[in-house]
Amino acid sequence: MPDLPAFLSSAPKPLFGFFPVALVFIGVEFVYMKLALHGEDHDTGETAASIGVAVGDLASRILTGSLVAIPLYVCYNHRLFNIPLNSVWSWVLLFIGVEFFYYWFHRASHRIRWFWATHAVHHSATHFNLSAAIRLGWTGTISGAFLFFLPLALIGFHPVAIGLTLGLGLIYQFYLHTAFPVRLGPLEWILNTPTHHRVHHASNESCLDKNYGSTLIIFDRLFGTFAMAPEYEPLKFGLKGREPSNNPFRIALSEWSFLWNDFRHAPSLRRKLKVLFGSP
């Protein structure tokens, strides 16, 4: 088994190394939208706030990385099978496994308020564009998001391979947030695309809690959470019932403040648990 520092130095590289590339693409999209389309899909203050949130997210990943590594390695040391990653089929199985557990993690992040307190950060942007992709919550690790992926290590997939696959999936998701109306033809049936993900981010009633997939959209189709954009109404973005902000700290932490306030005022243990683990 590789030592812990080796995992911590190798697993986050896809995300950390991609960050400067993401900023370049955000800048190109921003300039183009401002010049060609008068900036209707971009807001300067909101874009700057998203970058500030992203810097905080990267810092939190560095500080809390060991909290993910330890339980993954504990599960891997008690794995049910030895799965060598020296064949294409092993990686295909890992990819499908990551997609499956990501779907349920993402679905839980919308349906359980404890996880929504982190994930709401990603949905707080009122414009759908590439800068919204890097607006990620700072508290995913300490709130237990990694728990959804422990079964993969217990089955026998190496923690570094799991982290790498998740990281590459997040890089793919970055491009799903483009403001350009990209369509991929027949691939729309299998892959998550900008068209599908735009629906996921929309706050229209018919779009809420839909299209949870990472790279694939097939699990949404299988489990009844797939939706197309409403035909006769424009898509709206941002959090329902919340005032938008361009303060990175308020964006990252305000939902936890609302959660704590509701928890503190709940009159009974049953109500307190419902505040924590009920629907947002």
Structure description:
The chain is an all-alpha fold. The chain has one domain. Helix 2 packs parallel to helix 8. The longest helix has 34 residues. It is globular.
Q: Summed up, what is this model?
A:
This protein is mostly helical and 280 residues long.
Rg from Cα: 19 Å
Task: Sum up the overall morphology in one term.
Answer: globular
Strand content: under 5%
Number of helices: 12
User: Roughly how many Å apart are the termini?
Assistant: 40 Å
What's the structural domain tally?
1
The topology string of helices and strands comes to: HHHHHHHHHHHH
Question: Which segments are poorly predicted (pLDDT under 50) over 5 or more consecutive residues?
Answer: 1-12
Tally the beta strands.
Answer: 0
Category by helix and strand content: mainly alpha
Q: Provide mean pLDDT, rounded.
A: 90
Helix content: 55-70%
Largest sheet: none
Q: Which features would summarize this protein structure in a list?
A:
12 helices; single chain; mainly alpha
Reconstruct the topology from this structure.
Layout: H1 4-10, H2 13-36, H3 44-77, H4 88-111, H5 113-119, H6 130-133, H7 150-155, H8 159-176, H9 194-201, H10 218-223, H11 248-265, H12 269-277
Helix pairs in contact: 2-8, 3-11, 4-5, 4-8, 5-11, 11-12
